[in-house]
Amino acid sequence: MRWLPFVLLVALSVGCNSKPETKAEPQLSVDPSIANSGAIVCAHVATGEPILRATRDNPMDPDDSGWQFLCDSDVDERIEDAQIWSVTQVAEREPSLLPFINSPVGTTMSRTDADSEWKPSQ
């Protein structure tokens, strides 16, 4: 009986000092060649609405990624109200886009709401 408290103390101290093994999550990142390139963000997204559509067109110049990130609402928007963000800023705002951010020109992804999975669309 005298050894039981000692054994428990040792077991607890060993358990407290050990860390469970965890698998490292794969780190997704923005391709450095487009990380600081510009992307069009609609005014609604810029003010907090979720991104529901992402389309990559041919870039207009070397500083353009070709990406457009939109709220996909039916509300007409004035092009003058759109903003230019870096691709990195968009990825920080919406990390669920990271698996697709390096996709080629012609890629279009959409989802029905902020909690839905991204799906290829036309």
Give an overview in words.
Residues 51-119 form the Immunity protein Imm33 domain. With 122 residues, the chain is α+β, with helices and mostly antiparallel strands. The chain has a domain at 38-112. It has helices spanning 3-17, 43-46, 87-93; strands spanning 38-41, 53-56, 64-70, 83-86, 108-110, 119-120. Strands 4-1-3-2-5-6 form a 6-stranded mixed β-sheet. The chain is globular and about 35 Å long.
Fraction of residues in helices? 10-25%
Strand content: 15-25%
What is the count of β-strands? Answer: 6
Instruction: State the major sheet.
Output: 6 strands, mixed
Mean pLDDT: 81
Question: What is the strand arrangement across the widest sheet?
Answer: 4-1-3-2-5-6
The arrangement of helices and strands along the chain is: HEHEEEHEE
**Termini separation:** 73 Å
Radius of gyration (Å): 23 Å
Shape label: globular
Enumerate the spans where pLDDT stays under 50 for 5 or more consecutive residues: 1-26
State the helix count: 3
What would you call the structural class? Answer: alpha+beta
